[in-house]
Amino acid sequence: MTRPEVRPRPRERTAPPMPRFRSPLRGPWLTSVFGAVLLAALPLVVITGLLDYVAYGAGQSIPGDVGWLHLPAFDWPTRPSWLFRLTQGLHVGLGLIVVPVVLAKLWSVIPKLFEWPPARTPAKLLERASLLLLVGSILFEIVTGLLNIQYDYVFGFSFYTGHYLGAWVFIAAFVAHVALKLPTMLRSLRTRSLRAELRTPLAETRPEEPDGEIGLVPTDPAPPTMSRRGALALVGGGVVFVVALTAGQTIGGPLRPLALLLPRSRTPGGEPANDYPVNRTAAAATIDPAATGAAWRLDMTGGPAAQRLDRAMLLAGSESLPLHTATLPIACVEGWSTVQTWTGVRLRDLAALAGVPNPGSAFVDSLDPGPFGRVTLTGGQVVDPDALLALQVNGADLSPDHGFPARVIVPALPGVHCTKWVRSINFRAA
């Protein structure tokens, strides 16, 4: 007699243990409020960031090899002179200011990251993929951006290339997520009145209505420990706090010492004329003091009348090489900017003296052996009437940290390209 075959029971698919999210504040309305703020702010952060990469200019290796993701090249204008100060200030400043809102938005949607099963339909799979890419890319952009303004080149990769590629991942995920969730956000915003919520105290705070498949409202909410207006005030206070810690980098004045989030741009001290931010000191750039002393010469090539001038000849001024003074801003990729009064000789006058009256570009080389010790200027940047080889600032000689014996200052040019410790300029005809 044979025994009947006993087949093992199929294993039941059970959800893994999940954390319990019971905050009665979570729900589509509060998430949509944070989302609306980010929807208004993040495109501006993205656009100004991409404009800044254009400002760095073609052929400067910023970013590196990114294939077809390179933006179309065009000559970055020199007017208005504060253009790069505006775009970079908005990119870094607004990018820091929205961090509390980003964290609040992540807190509000964290139950979705633990949803089980992960996806029931192709549409849900697309939504979840866009959410994961959105969260991962925005955290990558925030972390790399903060590290870049806090520390000096701590990455094992090019910050510019990594941040640029991360931005495109974020853009793709952001567009997909907005396309999928915008109708839900608009409907959710209409379910409650912001004015009414700002008047609702803790004692009257209630969970939002069940939200079905959206899945943000807890099924077993805990008693509230904060009202929605308290949550909004907390996030708003975080924004104000970040503004107080960053605005001084762009505005200057008495607010600059409060800019604790950007310590790389601390002022070097010394005489008042040179008491403004510096990113890389002469020591950090390994500049040999002997090379900037009496032996220093400026070589100008590219035309039929190559020249070699010492600093005294540049400072003496002449009919063909007059001194010129201009008040111009200088703005850095880390977000700080300052306005100073610079004195030197016009780049277009140097080009004419070298036999290139109509320069199409200029290659500037410096004593700095690092990646930013050389720059290619466009023809428009060379011939701008305020584009200078600066020798003095605010009536005094440049300090060693600010580029003595000479540095480039061009209106609206990124600070990273206002090359310090210049030793040669090769002017190229148009």
Automatic annotation (TrEMBL):
SUPFAM superfamilies according to UniProt: Oxidoreductase molybdopterin-binding domain (SSF56524)
Domain Oxidoreductase molybdopterin-binding per the UniProt entry, residue ranges: 294-428
Membrane-crossing segments per the record: 29-51, 90-110, 131-151, 157-180, 231-251
Biased composition (Basic and acidic residues): 1-14
Alphabetical list of InterPro entries matching this protein: Mopterin_OxRdtase_euk (IPR008335), OxRdtase_Mopterin-bd_dom (IPR000572), OxRdtase_Mopterin-bd_sf (IPR036374)
Region Disordered, annotated ranges: 1-20
Pfam family, one: Oxidored_molyb
The organism's place on the tree of life at top rank: Bacteria
Swiss-Prot/TrEMBL keywords: Membrane, Transmembrane, Transmembrane helix
Coiled coil feature spans: none
Protein name: Molybdopterin-dependent oxidoreductase
Taxonomic source organism: Pseudonocardia xinjiangensis
